[in-house]
Amino acid sequence: MEDLIRHAEQINRQLARHGVKFGIYKNGTFKERLFPFDAIPRVITATEWETLSRGLTQRVRALNLFLRDIYGEKKILADGVVPEEFVYRSPGYLAQCEGIVPPGGIYSHISGIDLVKGKDGNWYVLEDNLRIPSGASYPLIARRLCRQCSPDTFRHNAVADNRQYGELLRRTLDSVNTGGINVVFTPGRYNAAYFEHAFLAEQSGAVLAEAGDLYVRDDVLYYRATHGDCRVGALYRRVSDEYMDPLAFEPSSLIGIPNLMAAYRAGNVAVVNAFGNGAADDKGIYYFVPKMVRYYLGEEAILHNAPTYLPFYEEDRRYVLDHLDSLVIKDVAEAGGYGVVFGSKLSRAELDKMRDTILAQPRRFIAQEVIDFEDLPIMEGSDRVERKADLRAFVLSGAQETVAWPSGLTRFSRNPDSFIVNSSQGGGFKDTWVLSH
User: Fold this and answer.
1) Residues 6+ apart with CB under 8 A from 51
2) CB 411 within 8 A of CB 421
3) What percent of the chain has pLDDT over 70?
């Protein structure tokens, strides 16, 4: 381990050379910055991973069944398990997807589940990311460079190999492919995760394409290839729903594919992840996921949610208003660590304003107890310090199988006083070692 730490600066230089950067738009300007890597890995035992893996796949199976249900028969709404309000008023719900069953019946093919480990030893799910979750490429490339810099570290530690992610992604795409090539669809060089798009295309054997490379004819999607156009059977898109098809969604989009929705509706191409998944990863819907597990699978949820309250319900609203100064308040429409407010950091006037906003718009917020989650060691210069860290686990769902990748993206806060670890908020990342025995 110490040998790996000694090579940390070299690994970060190599990451920079590979273009492992995180880009953000701020004040209308695109800025790139390095995504700092810390060489001390997070370690998860084989026994702990076995439980995590079962819990992750269980959760994603239930979420996929929920998506199929709400865009189809809507039984969970009719039975009153989930209020209609939380589906139809979700910004992620797309009426255009009503009645569409995607190839293989899978909606969330690549799910990014964000968890933290509490100091009580339990894992808690903070968020389900079912639209275009990013981050798998970072531990992949970091592990590759770590192996090159310090091969003895991996000879002397029983770390599960994580190099199969590209193969898992290829199998997932192949399982829903409607006939044709697999394509990773990127908005282009100035997207925050462009490195990942190119890297995953290479790892999975898919073609990397932008909007100008693709077109729809007679409800079939094609790729403009050098030696003749090719039919596309699976499109792993890294573009948000609203920009994917200017004829179906946002008409001003210049990065979408006109008539893609028609090809998708006709069942001629699998879109990975499916349109409309935002209806299931809304922070308000998160509250109901353990109920979904019970409803669709007849099982109790293996993984726990963080203790969560919905101001939508009167009893929860009273509790939230009475304990506002000790809770975390989250705006359900925000992402990337934005819209998260710690009541303990608000002034009396700010608390009063927040109370008024919650009373006026109870559907807009969830509230959670502050979980005292695990600190992990990082190197800050030559000092070893403790910082808050989460884990984004990746679950891949194909037509025949749902698999949790034995690795993941561990993100940490570089601010000693912050619980927010998102890369867009200035955090760094670690490799995640799942021990093989």
Assistant:
1) 302
2) yes
3) 93
Alpha helices in 156-233 (DSSP H): 165-176, 194-204
Q: Which tens digit of pLDDT belongs to each residue from 242-292?
A: 999 999 999 999 999 999 999 999 999 999 999 999 999 888 899 999 999
Checking if the pLDDT of 25 tops 60, the result is no
Measure the CA angle with vertex 210, ends 206 and 213; round to 5°: 85
Q: How many CA atoms lie within 13 A of 404 on its CB side?
A: 24
Question: For residue 273, is the peptide bond before it cis, meaning its omega torsion is within 30 degrees of 0?
Answer: yes
Question: Could you tell me how many helices (H) and strands (E) the chain has, helices first?
Answer: 15, 21
Paired strand residues for 111: 395
Pairing of strands 207-209, 181-185: parallel
Q: Per-residue pLDDT tens for 214-252?
A: 999 999 999 999 889 999 999 999 999 999 999 999 999
Say yes or no to pLDDT of 42 above 90: yes
Which SS3 state, helix, strand or coil, does residue 113 take?
A: strand
In terms of C-beta density within 10 A (0-12 exposed, 13-18 middle, 19 or more buried), how is residue 217 classed? exposed
Burial class (CB in 10 A: 0-12, 13-18, 19+), 265: middle
Rounded to whole angstroms, how far apart are CA atoms 246 and 229?
Answer: 22
Query: Chain-centre distance of CA 182, in angstroms?
Result: 21
- pLDDT at residue 435 greater than cutoff 80: yes
Q: Any residues with CB less than 8 A from the CB of 16 and at least 6 apart, and which?
A: 34
Three-state secondary-structure class, residue 259: coil
Q: Rounded to a whole number, what is the distance in angstroms from the first to the last CA of the chain?
A: 18
How many whole angstroms separate alpha carbon 308 and alpha carbon 221? Answer: 43
Q: Taking CA 295 as the corner, what is the angle to CA 293 and CA 300, rounded to the nearest 5 degrees? A: 45
For the segment 39-49, the average pLDDT, to the nearest whole number, is 96
